[in-house]
Each structure stands twice: as structure tokens, then as C-alpha cells.
Amino acid sequence: MAAGAVGLAGALTLAAFAAPNRAAAAARTYVPVTAATVVAHVPPRDPTEVRERHELAAAPDRVEIAVQLARADIQRARTLSDPRYLGHAQATLARWWSLASPPPDVLLLRATIEQSLHQFAAARTDLDRLIGERPEDVQAQLTRAVVATVTADYAAARASCRALERLAVPVIVAACKAPLDALTGDLDGAYRRLAATIDRRTPASLRAWALTTLAELAIQRGDDGIAAQHLRDVLASDPEDAYARAALADVSEPRVASELLAGYEMIDNLLVRRAIAEHRAQGPEAAKLARAMHERIAAAAERGDRVHQREEAMFVLAVDEDPPRALAIAERNWNDQKELADARLLAEAATRAHEPAAAAPVIAWAHANGVHDARLQRWLP
């Protein structure tokens, strides 16, 4: 799971990891025995969406329809933690996707998809350009704050958060600033200020995002019980919130975590956590889950997929119990993204592999920014 920018990323820009069920399909082709075999259940189509797709097919240059449809698919990817919908969104925008100067709304959606795929440099280029054209675009500023935070460009992230002070309601501004403040030495103040912006008038989606961010800050403080309560509140209002479910599993005992994640194995972010939980609890499905995760790791490698390095390193460390290999993966992951979850992972892998020098980049990062994190401190000298 991401930390720091995680609430923002999870709620607004798809920073949460999940791999689609196609990963398993890539590893093994399935042919139904009969024509009556049910291969998958798909959600019913929204009649409005069906009509809009027909309209776009009839008039493929209508960018406003394409943007509307792509936004819907991005929201599905976010809600279901299923990036197949990102591919749908990109296909819908194909007419404008490769343009040097696409329409601003397309530019924003392109950056959002790039960010979710860890193409951070491309996303940042698109976002900087868009903000130059539309500095009052709230979504663009939020997305740039996430990308800048993930890549440790905290000055740029703060600039975007400051821009929101005149553009957005207090809870959005506070949720933008809180992860940055927490990473740079003011963890308690960040938690207090964000909590003060949440009340009964806060819209449900913003409330879930803010509570998720508060949970991350509580974990950073070492208050797992408080974090768990925030996350249970989020799941009470939206049981399908995959990010909150994964975060709650992270602060739960192994058996509890496995039960919480059962039935959600299509999402790799949840599969890896259930595999780890079952392994630690010596549960009856441990071997089956480990095999499933190995298949998805193999499928990702076949695709040349580098998005899932954090989760692969977690699995290799906890289930394969191969610290040297986990350390190599964690080091590559740290080169791509620098969130608390990545720092914790690299420091733990270095310690377990008896290679303390490998944690030097994390130590330097933590000292340079005044980072205080209860979990990270377990693994730092």
C-alpha cells in the first residue's frame, strides 16, 4: 500500500495497486467445456453509457462524449481496483491519445492513467503543461501533488496544495497537505488538522478519502487500533473499497486479515495480502494462494510489467522467505517510487538479508525530510 499520498492517490488518482484477472489468464488459457459454461459475471450496462457509446461511434470526433466515457471507466478502475478499465478509457481516448497537444480534458485523463501505471515522468510532463494552461483545475493540481509526492518532489507537491487553498473546500486542502506535513516532521499536527475538517456535512466520497488518509497517518504514528476504526468506517459505507480493505488487513492479525480478504483474490493487491496472511496463520489455503500469486508474478514478468514491484517484494519476503531476492526487487522499486511503504519495505528487506548498507538510501531520505514512522523505525539503525 502506498503511504503519505495514499489517501489522495487512492481516492482521486488511482495510486493504489491492483492487477486484473487477465494476469492469471496470461499464465494459463482457459477453454470452457461447453457453450453453457459461465465464464464471468459482468455488471449490467448503464443505458446512458450505452447510448453515449453509440453516439461516439456515430460521431468519433466528439471529444466531450469520449471524455465522459473515459472518466466513467477510470472511476470503475478506482472503485473496483481493476485496471482493465484503464485500458478501456485509453481506447476510448485513442483518437487524441498520442497528440502532442490534446484537448485539456484528455491531457488530464492521460496523466491520470500514466500516473496509475507508474509512468511518473510522463504524467508530470502532462500535468505541468495542463496546469500552465488551466492553473485553476483542481483535479490537475491534486494529481500533480500525488505524482510529486511519490517521486519525492515535495516542493512541487506543496505548490499544488497551496494552489488548492483558493480553489477547493477545506477537507480537500487538508487531505492534500496532511501526507506532506506528516512526511516532513509534523505528523501529529497533520493528523489533527485533517481530522478537524471532517464533519457530518462532508460528502461521502470526500469523507472516505479523508478517513483513509487519517488511517495512514495513524499507522505512521503507530496507532493501529485508531487506523483500523477509520478503515472500518470507510468499509461500512462502501464495502467494495479495495484500498481500505487492504489497509485494514495490514493492521489486522493474520487470521482476521485472511477472513477480511477472502473472496477478493481477483485483485492482486488483496491476493498478495491474503497469501501472506494465510502463510503467517498457517491457514488451509496458504499453498493454493501462494501458487496463485506465483502465477500472477510470472504473468507480470512476461508482460514486462514493473508496476507491481512493491507487492512482488512483499510476497517474496514474507511467503517465499527469500530476503536477498526481495531486497533486489525492493531496491528497483525504490528507484521508481519513494513512499513510506516503499521505505519500510526496503529497510526490512535489507535487515532480513543482512545487508544493512542497502538501507542507506532510505536512511538518507528519512533524515533529510525529518520522517518519523513507527514501522520504519523498527528496521532502521
What does this structure look like?
The two termini are 24 Å apart. It is globular and about 60 Å long. It has one domain: Alpha Horseshoe (Serine Threonine Protein Phosphatase 5, Tetratricopeptide repeat). It has 381 residues and is mostly helical. The chain is 69% helix and 0% strand. Residues 1-28 have low confidence and may be disordered.
Features:
381 residues, mainly alpha
How is this fold's topology laid out?
Blueprint: H1 6-13, H2 22-27, H3 47-58, H4 63-80, H5 84-92, H6 94-97, H7 104-116, H8 120-133, H9 138-150, H10 154-164, H11 170-183, H12 187-196, H13 204-221, H14 224-237, H15 242-250, H16 254-261, H17 268-281, H18 286-303, H19 309-318, H20 323-336, H21 340-352, H22 360-369, H23 374-377
Helix pairs in contact: 1-9, 1-13, 3-4, 4-5, 4-7, 7-8, 7-9, 8-9, 9-10, 10-11, 11-12, 11-13, 12-13, 13-14, 14-15, 15-16, 15-17, 16-17, 17-18, 17-19, 19-20, 19-21, 20-21
Number of helices: 23
Shape: globular
End-to-end gap: 24 Å
Please state the CA-atom Rg, rounded to the nearest Å: 21 Å
Q: In this structure, how is the largest beta sheet organized?
A: none
- Which parts are unreliable, with pLDDT below 50 for 5 consecutive residues or more? 1-28
- Structural class of the secondary elements? mainly alpha
Arithmetic mean of pLDDT: 88
Q: What is the name of the CATH class? A: Mainly Alpha
CATH topology: Serine Threonine Protein Phosphatase 5, Tetratricopeptide repeat
Q: What's the number of structural domains? A: 1
CATH homologous superfamily title: Tetratricopeptide repeat domain
Architecture in CATH? Alpha Horseshoe
| Number of DSSP-assigned strands | 0
- How much strand? under 5%
Helix content: 55-70%
Q: What order do the helices and strands follow?
A: HHHHHHHHHHHHHHHHHHHHHHH
